[in-house]
Each structure stands twice: as C-alpha cells, then as structure tokens.
Amino acid sequence: MENQTEISTLGEFGLIDHITENLPIHNASTKKAVGDDCAVMDYEGKKVLVSTDLLLEGVHFDLTYVPLKHLGYKSAIVNFSDLYAMNARPRQITVSLGISKRFTVEHIEQLYAGIRLACEIYGVDIVGGDTTSSRSGLVISITCIGDADEDKIVYRNGAKPTDLICVSGDLGAAYMGLQLLEREKIASAGQKDFQPDFAGKEYLVERQLKPEARRDIIDELEKAGIVPTSMMDVSDGLSSELLHLCKQSHTGCRVYEDRIPIDYQTAVMAEEIGMNLVTAAMNGGEDYELLFTVPLSDHETIKNIKGIKIIGHMTQPDMGCAMITRDGAEFPIKAQGWNPLKDAEK
Amino acid sequence: MENQTEISTLGEFGLIDHITENLPIHNASTKKAVGDDCAVMDYEGKKVLVSTDLLLEGVHFDLTYVPLKHLGYKSAIVNFSDLYAMNARPRQITVSLGISKRFTVEHIEQLYAGIRLACEIYGVDIVGGDTTSSRSGLVISITCIGDADEDKIVYRNGAKPTDLICVSGDLGAAYMGLQLLEREKIASAGQKDFQPDFAGKEYLVERQLKPEARRDIIDELEKAGIVPTSMMDVSDGLSSELLHLCKQSHTGCRVYEDRIPIDYQTAVMAEEIGMNLVTAAMNGGEDYELLFTVPLSDHETIKNIKGIKIIGHMTQPDMGCAMITRDGAEFPIKAQGWNPLKDAEK
Question: How far is A314 from chain B (nearest CA, A)?
Fold first, then answer.
C-alpha cells in the first residue's frame, strides 16, 4: 500500500476510536457497545453462552501468505463456530489486539475490515475489546457471547449408544489448503513477483484462508425440528472430536471410512503430496464443520438435509472408538489432532 | 523450584484438565463451566456486562520482578475492577493463555493459583478459556462477565455540572511501586542473591504487584443507597479518566490539588526520585481505584463513607477541565496516562 500511517500518530484511544467508528448494531440484546468499562447486554430470559479463542502470529497464522482481512474474518468465524456448536446464536464479540510496531493503521484497518465483514454476514455486534502494543507478533483474542433457549442448547455429553453420527460439509480441505500454501511459500523463497500456483485447488485455499461457520446447518436442523443429542465443531480434526463426544457422553463409536465426506480437490492434493487421504480428513483440523449425533428415529429426516452426511453411529462404551475401513477391517480411532502446545519455541 | 514438568508431557488438553481441575462454582448464574465449546450462564432478568483485558509480557509485566502468582491475581483483579466500575458484579471469567516453552507446568500452576485466589476472594467462576503455545512471551487474555440490575448500571456519561467528583483510596502508589521495582532491578543487575530493599515502601510494592478491586466501595455505596451519576476505574491515571468522564458526560471539571488522596510512602518515594508528587498521582495509573460523581445532594452521605474523598466538582462544559493548585492557580488537565501503543518494538 502507498499511504501508511504509523499507529503512534493515533495512540491507543485514537486507534480504538478509529477502528470502532460507526459500528453497526444487529441485535436487540446489545444495549451498550464500545466506549465504557464494559459492554451491556440484555438476553431476556435466554441462556447466555461464552467462548473465547486466542490466536498468535507464528503459531496460528503466518502473515507471509495470510492476508490480514482474511485473518480477521477467520478469527471471528472460529468463535461463531463455537456458538453454533452448542446450537446457540453468536450475538456479540469483544476483540483484543496486541500489535507490534511493524503494523500500520492501514494494516489494522484491513484486519478489522475482515472482522467487521464476518460480523455483518453473521449478524454479530462488536461490543468491546482491548488494544495494546506487542513486543513480538500480532496477538488476536476474541471472545464471543451468544444466546439460546435452555431446551435447545446441545452439549458434548448427550449422545446415546445407537445415535447416528453426522457431519456437515467435507473434511480435510483446510488442512490440504495449508499444505498447499506452505509448499508455495517454500517455492517462492527469494523470488520477487512469485506467482503461486493454485489452479484447480482454489477450494482448498479458500477453506484454509476464509472458512465459514455452519449457521446454515443450525438453521436447517431447526427447520426440521431436530435438536442433536450432542454436538461440537471440528476444529482439531474429526478423530479428536469424536473421542471428545464419546468420552463426555460415555459411549463408543463406529464410523465408516467410505462415509467420510471428502472433496475431490482434497483427494487430488493428498495424492500429489503422497499423504493418506483418510488420515488427512480425520486429523487435519480447521474444518469448522459440525459433528453431531441424533437419535436413530431422526434417520429419515436427517438423510434428506443437504450438506449433512451420516458417517456412523454411537455404541456402548466398552466397544471403544473405531473406524471400519472399506475392506471391513476395524482400526481404533486415535487423536492425532494438532497440539498447539507442541509448537512453541524456547 | 526443584521438580519442573515440561508442558509437552501433558499436551494442551492435559494442561487444561490439570489447571481447571476441581474449579469451584460460586454463582447460581454459572450453569456450565469449562469442558464444552462454550460456557453457559443464566442471569435471570439481570443485564449482562462484559469486559476484556489483554496482558503481554514485556509490555504489561516484567517477570524479572513479578511473581507468577501475583501476576495471575492482578490479571483477574483488573478485569473485576472494570465490572465494579459499572456498579456491576463480576461473576465469570474466561482465561486464555499463550505460553512459551520456557514455562513449565509448575509455572502455569502458580499463575493459575493467583487467578483462582482472586476468583475465590471475589466470588467469581472460571468458566472457560483457551490455551496455546506462544513463540515469544507469556500472553494473558481475560474476559470477565457480570451482572447488574438495569437501574443500577453506572456509565461514564451520566455526570451533570455541579456533581461532586469522588475517588476511593489513594493514587500514585502503584506507579511509585513500579519505579521502585525498576530501580531495584537495575541495582540487582549481574548480582547473584541480590536482596532488594523495600523497607518502608512495602505498600508501594503491594499496590503494584497485588492490587485489589474496590468491591468494598461498591458495597458501601449500595448500603448508603447511592447510585453514582458516572463512574470508571482509575487504570490509566486520574487525569486521563477525568477527561473521559467529562468528554462522555459533556461537562467540565475542577479538582483541587490539596484534595488528591496520596499515601505517605508515595510522597517519600516521589521525593527520593525527584518526581513531582501530584504529577505521579494524576498520571501514574494502575491504581484501580474508583472515580465517580454523585449529585450535590449526596454530599452529607458520601463524606461519611470511609475511603472516599471528594476531590472537586463537575462544571459546565465550556469551563474546561482544570486543577486548582494549593496557591489558587488553575492548570488545564491533560491526559498523560500511559499509552501502551507507544511501547512497542519494531
């Protein structure tokens, strides 16, 4: 960009005033947003749900290939996804930013534009936050508040043996998108005006850089009158999330390899980099799809909802958690999801 | 410490399980705490208030002289203070931590012990959070949720000309505590077993390292039947906060130098380092005292509450914001509060 403004010219309050200017309000529950010691909300008889995510540069994102606007969008989406994962609706977020000096006002505007776009699309209000300097990289901490009727909230612990296990969308694409971006980053090293080659793999890049939260699935379930018995979003990988649901619901599970939904581009990329496709789909993470269980009696209804795949069923806990391969073999499911604590540097 | 456990031996979920084990629940509004995609709360007709703070190593704290348990305590307190500043009650917090590899499980236990102690004393529940690795220093992001009756919430914008300006406790001590700790840090450089000299200045160190939130003042005001017309907590310094109240309430103000509450130790330390005492008290910050306004008619009631000092009064906006010195001179009040965005490194 041509015109760059140093953040110090605005100062903390100036920057906050600038980026929170003309924030729209979408929800009646938002009574007082930015500008006081606290935001004030009124949920009028509904239950209040809160979730929070901390994203750190170099751990969760690499600004070499992640545009700031996409990063802002994704930072908001991953929080909305947690609210939908409880069958609730996100209503407000607070946005805290730690900013190092290499960022300008324009950079923060881009980041915030992404957050605001996500809020616009999902009908969420920005009600507060904190802005400070950082001595190292960019820090993004978003807390999302939402609401739900008490009898609609879906926890992780309500699944029963014989419940059907369902997943929305497809899995593994975001992970393959990351592999692709990393590959192009290495290929670009030292080359000016390098043009990355994403031809035929646009979906993978989009799934990594600009994921969506599955509000549409929550809407469809509501329309169909289905309240899942357990639910969570797939952020660390299907294997890891299945184990969470089974552990908290005191069940085992059987999922079928040939039922795991995988996009064609994901399969092509796995082939190219010589990675086992099912491993990628089961352990990739960052899919932000919904994993949930419904009673067997909902089978007819659920199989007619577009974008939802039945991948298996819950069992008695002593059966353990396993995947049935195409040739009928049974493999125990193990969590190989991404562990963000293994990634730290001394 | 002798026995140190690498965090990688527990992993993310193991560490979260470990530090959130046996968390007590103090509030009926906490329906579901740690362990799902969201926490769930029920505020039963009350308004819901949310505040958030981001604390970064090297910017907000220096682990050379800040013990981790104190840091945890203070991180929670500064958030509680924001809730009291709205005349609300903190009920729940989420705690997100970014941890670099030089921290062990025992370090995080200490940090968490401080957070838990603050929660125990103030009756607040830990309901969620996020734990991840950090490539540089320690990152602490806490969001606090609380409640209040609608007609009791105090904003920054309700002050009227002639309202009395009140402040709790005393000012400038936390800032002087920081100066003292920095001085001893420099004095200790390179010396093993250095014993810092805090004799006669224990109060300053305590105000810096282990501040309290003024729940007691909120209790006293409630007992006296007083709802302030405007209020905020003094985190950036009295000057800066006075300007906020005046700007948002569309008033001016007059405060009297000889009414600013200052502790004896603060005065001694200012003398020692050759710093203007009133400047320190007006601009030091991190006092976490309450600054509020009440109608003139509350004068008799307010002057009998221990720990509250009337320091001046609001005026018509065209009078501007000024301090009256001991010799009757009038000086405009300017914000010289700490600007966390000026402190970043490239």
Answer: 19
Measure CB to CB from residue B143 to each of A52, A58, A153 and give the nearest one.
Answer: A52
Q: Which residues of B touch A155 (CB under 8 A)?
A: 32, 36
Complex ipTM tops 0.95: no
Tell me whether residues A340 and B139 touch, CB distance under 8 A: no
pLDDT at B280 over 70: yes
Domain segments of chain B as ranges: 7-152, 164-342
What token pair was written down for A274? 């010589």
Superfamily of the domain at B164-342: PurM-like C-terminal domain (3.90.650.10)
Q: Confirm or reject CATH 3.30.1330.10 for domain A7-152, answering yes or no.
A: yes
Chain B residue numbers touching A86 (CB-CB < 8 A) = 36-38, 40
Under 8 Å between Cβ of B98 and A139: yes
Mean pLDDT over each residue of chain B, to the nearest integer: 89
User: Residue B67, class by beta-carbon neighbours within 10 Å (0-12 exposed, 13-18 middle, 19+ buried)?
Assistant: middle
**Position B144, amino acid:** C
Quickly count: other Cβ atoms within 10 Å of residue B276's Cβ: 10
CB contact under 8 A, B82 and A37: yes
What is d(CA B99, CA A270) in angstroms, rounded to the nearest whole number? 32
User: Residue B239 and residue A297: Cα distance in Å, rounded?
Assistant: 65
Tens of pLDDT along B7-52? 777 777 777 777 777 777 887 778 777 777 787 878 888 889 999 9
Across chain A, mean pLDDT equals 89
Q: Smallest CA–CA separation between A156 and chain B, in Å?
A: 6
Size of interface A-B (CB pairs under 8 A): 252
pTM for this predicted structure: 0.91
Strands in chain B per DSSP E: 30-32, 39-41, 47-56, 89-99, 125-133, 139-148, 164-168, 230-234, 252-256, 289-294, 308-315, 321-324, 330-332
Q: pLDDT (tens digit, 9 = 90+) per residue, A232-267?
A: 999 989 999 999 999 999 999 999 999 999 999 999
Residues of A within 8 A of B31 (CB-CB) are: 47
A129-149 pLDDT, tens digit per residue, is 888 889 878 999 999 999 999
Q: Which fold has domain A164-332?
A: Phosphoribosyl-aminoimidazole Synthetase; Chain A, domain 2 (3.90.650)
